[in-house]
Automatic annotation (TrEMBL):
It is an enzyme of class 3 (hydrolase). NCBIfam families: aden_deam (TIGR01430). Its EC number is 3.5.4.4. Residues 387-396 have a biased composition (Low complexity). It comes from the Eukaryota. It comes from Chionoecetes opilio (Atlantic snow crab). It is a peripheral membrane protein. The keyword tRNA-binding does not apply. This is Adenosine deaminase.
Length: 413
């Protein structure tokens, strides 16, 4: 009997939607360990897989900058390697399919994966001599092609649909216009939106506007071109950053946004504008974002959002660093008291606020309805009567029975 009970479920409907996950932060530990060993790159500890995993784990949450330090350990293995980029995109979709994800929007910055940005001058000179991965010839289009090829192959094999959001970065304004160009040029190949990530530049009121002038102009242009927009805001920055992201940058969705609860007026504005919040439960603790909140209530903001029926989705952010999958995020939320109704609503809100075109968005919502077993029920005709009285319903005249009159016995046919 135990063998029967332990037999895994053979079919699990794809019923989840994820909108906020970074591709370069969602690489399998096993893949990184394998590639770093092959390339002779320095591995933490004694070089074991377990030591690599431990090094990538945030031991004591501090702030976002501390959380992001782990990228320096493994990103050198990725930059300049188109084959690895294709592989990690393909494996990403395999992992998403295992998590019952019907649709996801994965984001990355192609410029961050170019060798010229991540290597020291001596390493760049080595690569210019043509010794590593053909990196001397790599341009952003090569990164885009590799990632999109991996996603397309994964989508075809595993059945999870994926689209791409391209990230601008605070402090890297020289990339922003090029990111916008790529959003336009790769629109027909699956790029659906633009993002602004990194340590927030939408800080205090005294901050000079010139710091964000380029990014603001890029996002204004994106809006004019019909390119969808999401911005990391309110993760460690103040509620005013969320307000600027919406009012100045035209953000339709907010990545994280926890600090929005520090200003009730900004929070109400987001509700009125139907702003969608991309929530990342485990990440919010590991980055120190929730710990730094100055709200009277110490509950996680997602609980307030759920109670107020604010639009939000459930996401993993950087699984390589959080050591979580989507199911782990759901388990955490369930332990806080969220019910299947909250989780279901979050997935439908994610689908509704996805950056898919209307026809594909409807198809996704229909797919979710089928996965959740929504029943299309119509009342029996007698209950659809306009009569308001039960007695009238019971005594209403039945429809006349058909009658046939025969002239003679021979006419019966």
């Amino acid at each position: 009997m135990s063998l029967i009970f332990n037999e895994p479920l053979k079919h699990r409907p794809k019923s989840r939607v994820e909108l906020h996950v970074h591709l370069d932060g969602a690489i399998r530990h096993e893949t990184l360990w394998e590639v770093m060993r092959q390339k002779g790159l320095s591995l933490p500890g004694n070089g074991s897989l377990s030591d690599l995993k431990e090094a990538l784990k945030v031991q004591e949450p501090r702030d976002l900058a501390h959380f992001l330090q782990a990228f320096a350990i493994f990103l050198p293995a990725v930059v300049g390697d188109a084959a690895l980029m294709e592989r990690m995109a393909y494996e990403f979709l395999e992992d998403q399919a295992r998590e019952c994800v019907a649709y996801c929007e994965v984001r990355f910055c192609p410029h961050l994966l170019l060798p010229s940005h991540n290597l020291t001058p001596s390493e760049q000179e080595t690569q210019l001599n043509g010794s590593v991965n053909g990196a001397k010839e790599m341009v952003v289009e090569d990164v885009m092609d590799a990632v999109l090829k991996g996603l397309a192959r994964g989508e075809q094999q595993f059945g999870t649909k994926a689209r791409v959001i391209l990230c601008c970065f605070w402090g890297q304004s020289e990339w922003s216009w090029d990111i916008l160009r790529l959003c336009e040029e790769y629109k027909e190949r699956g790029v659906v939106g633009i993002d602004l990530a990194g340590v927030e530049g939408l800080g205090s009121e005294s901050e000079s506007f010139t710091k964000s002038a380029v990014e603001c102009a890029v996002f204004e242009a994106a809006k004019e071109k019909g390119i969808h927009r999401t911005i990391h805001a309110g993760e460690e920055g103040p509620a005013s950053g969320v307000q600027k992201a919406v009012e100045m940058f035209g953000a339709e969705r907010i990545g994280h946004g926890y600090h929005v609860l520090e200003d009730e007026e900004v929070y109400k504005m987001c509700q009125q504008e139907n702003i969608h919040f991309e929530m990342c439960p485990h990440s919010s603790f590991l980055t120190g974002s929730v710990k730094s909140l100055t709200t009277p209530s110490k509950r996680h903001p997602i609980l307030r959002f759920a109670e107020d029926e604010v639009s939000f989705s459930i996401n993993t952010d950087d699984p390589t660093l959080t050591h979580t999958r989507l199911s782990d995020e759901y388990k955490l939320l369930i332990s806080w008291g969220l019910t299947e109704a909250h989780l279901t609503r979050a997935n439908f809100q994610a689908a509704l606020h996805s950056f898919l075109p209307p026809k594909e968005k409807k198809q996704l919502i229909d797919q979710l309805k089928e996965a959740y077993g929504f029943i299309h029920y119509s009342l029996p005709p007698i209950l659809c009567s306009t009569s308001t009285s039960p007695s009238e319903t019971r005594t209403s005249t039945p429809p006349p029975k058909p009658s046939v009159t025969f002239g003679t016995w021979a006419d019966r046919s």
